[in-house]
Design goal:
44% helix; 10 helices; Alpha/beta knot; homodimer; 2 domains; elongated; alpha/beta
Chain lengths: 245, 245
């Protein structure tokens, strides 16, 4: 797995609103990123508007580092991504957040330190900012409405990085204790069939086999656990009983 | 590819703030989702607070459908996901947003209509709401700080769905027109070596070969396009010239 000590640096270039810095901090911290760097924040630093919108991610705000220039902010990093929405026509590779996440985990496991630049809210980064990056990072969006705000861009990049290092299985079964075994399933089938027989459900001898198969497939597909087979047998028993009153 | 007509329904269950409904609409629309459904929104509907925070996604707000109950909201859907953060101890499969996206594309290509339930801002869904779902959808987050808000949860699910249907290559090369061919690269190497020779750079005959290899590897690794080889040759030529003034 990745070198635990290094995490990608999230660098906000000339961010405008303190509130957006707070939201970006919260987005990062949701996915375990803590290295927040600010380049020339418009309203100075610290900014009292950042704390409240960071919610419980105040630690990220408290430890944010401030730099005058992008060059200084990336000085200790080995690979820099620039997030952009529009085509810059620069001779740089363009990657998705998923591909960047994969690359960054590879870099970190080799002891390298990646950083991701995010531009100011309205204007985005200048071409001079982007020229300092190795790679352009762009999330594909609805071509009719590409309007990711700063915190949204930060969350997508952070999320992809976290997912790729996370061991949660993509799919966890509905019954961690396992499904019923086939003896239990067949027991339930036979129980139902027996009761239905008593009730005269199988009226036409010619259709009996096809009716039985329909019921057996339905039970088979239900994916019952042992417990659920017991519940079903209780239901069948209760239904089969004569009227109580 | 997917059936173009069907997109997953995003169902907000008893949402509280109009502003959050607007943000969720914006998050959906960024990734091409438009089927927004509201179950018993606390402050009624329409809500004047929703429009401004939806930014350009007003069309999603305008076409949102309102229902009294979750049962009614999912009536025309074939598979329902419930997004939860905490463990519910219910016998349901639990999937990541990426796995849900994969499943939903499969369902849609078979003409099925999936839906995703998102609970109220503070409390999340009740267990009765969750029991109506087929599958639980949970995004793995920082175990020390899992604090996804409503719009953030909507954006992650919408993003994953969009990515999986999107044809953007994960990695686009820096030089779409292709790299320089080896004749151009070797031409540059020889040009530099020739000029360095003139300037007496290779002082020690014993180290000449190793110095040459260092330079050749460096040029090889740079990944120049034809245009960049020309630029480099211009630089070398300019540097090699005697003082101009």
């Amino acid at each position: 797995m990745s070198n635990k000590a290094i995490k990608p640096a999230i660098i906000l270039v000339r961010p405008q609103l303190g509130e957006n810095i707070g939201k970006a901090a919260r987005a990062m911290y949701n996915f375990g990123l803590t290295d927040l760097r600010l380049v020339a924040p418009r309203d100075g630093w610290p900014n009292p508007d950042a704390g409240p919108s960071a919610a419980g991610a105040g630690v990220v705000i408290d430890e944010a580092k401030v730099f005058e220039t992008v060059e200084e902010a990336v000085a200790d990093c080995t690979h820099v991504y620039a997030t952009t929405v529009r085509e810059r026509g620069m001779p740089k590779a363009v990657v998705t957040p998923a591909e960047a996440a994969k690359q960054m985990h590879g870099m970190i496991s080799s002891g390298e330190r990646p950083a991701i630049l995010f531009g100011p809210e309205r204007s985005g980064m200048t071409n001079d900012d982007v020229a300092l990056a190795d790679t352009i990072l762009t999330a594909p969006v609805n071509p009719d409405y590409g309007s990711l705000n700063l915190a949204q861009a930060v969350i997508l990049v952070s999320y992809e990085f976290f997912q790729r290092g996370d061991a949660t299985p993509e799919h966890q079964p509905s019954h961690p204790e396992g499904l019923a075994d086939k003896a239990e399933i067949v027991g339930l089938m036979e129980h139902i069939e027996g009761e239905l027989e008593q009730k005269g459900y199988f009226r036409s001898e010619g259709r009996r086999d096809s009716q039985r198969r329909t019921i057996r497939n339905l039970i088979q597909n239900a994916g019952f656990s042992s417990q659920e087979v017991q519940t079903m047998r209780g239901i069948v028993k209760a239904l089969a009983k004569g009227q109580k009153r």
